[in-house]
Amino acid sequence: TYAVHPGLVRTELGAHGELVGLVGAAWRLIQPLLTSPVDGAASTIHCATAPELSRVSGVYLEDGEICPPSIAARNTEAARRLWTVSAELVRLDDGQPVVV
Fold first, then answer.
1. pLDDT at 38
2. Choice among 3-7, 78-82, 88-92, 93-97 with the minimum mean pLDDT
3. Which of 6, 55, 91, 98 could staple 43 via S-S, CB 3.0–4.6 A?
4. Closest C-alpha among 15, 14, 18, 11 to residue 35
5. Is-above-0.70 flag for pTM?
6. What is the model's pLDDT at position 71?
């Protein structure tokens, strides 16, 4: 498993008026500077198909390169809480996962 950050990718986020005011204006201004959706997807595809990563697991990758995760991502108490809440949300705690 990996955590993959493809960089800032130009998406449809905010294209339909969801982002308003200063935030919306700033988002529209920086769109041309962002990575294309194709290039953003390439990062994830690389991580899924690269032979050199086939035996690697549990790492954080940015633009296809292994990088140290943030301090917050290394917080074991937060990780335990995330697992607990996630398991509760999908009812994994009672052994019967919810199928949607």
1. 92
2. 93-97
3. 6
4. 11
5. no
6. 92
The CA-based diameter of the chain, rounded to the nearest angstrom, is 48
Alpha-carbon dihedral sign for residues 43, 48, 52, 55: positive
What whole-number distance in Å separates Cα of residue 79 and Cα of residue 23? 31
* 8 A C-beta contact, residue 14 and residue 27: yes
Q: What is the 3-state secondary structure (H, E, C) of 46-90?
A: HHHHCHHHCCCCCEEEECCEEECCCCHHHCHHHHHHHHHHHHHHC
Residue written as token pair 């705690």: 93
pLDDT surpassing 80 at residue 43: yes
Answer whether 27's CB lies under 8 Å from 13's CB: yes
Structure tokens given for 13: 């986020």
Q: Which two tokens stand for residue 10?
A: 């130009």
Token reading at 69? 């995760």
d(CA 9, CA 27): 11
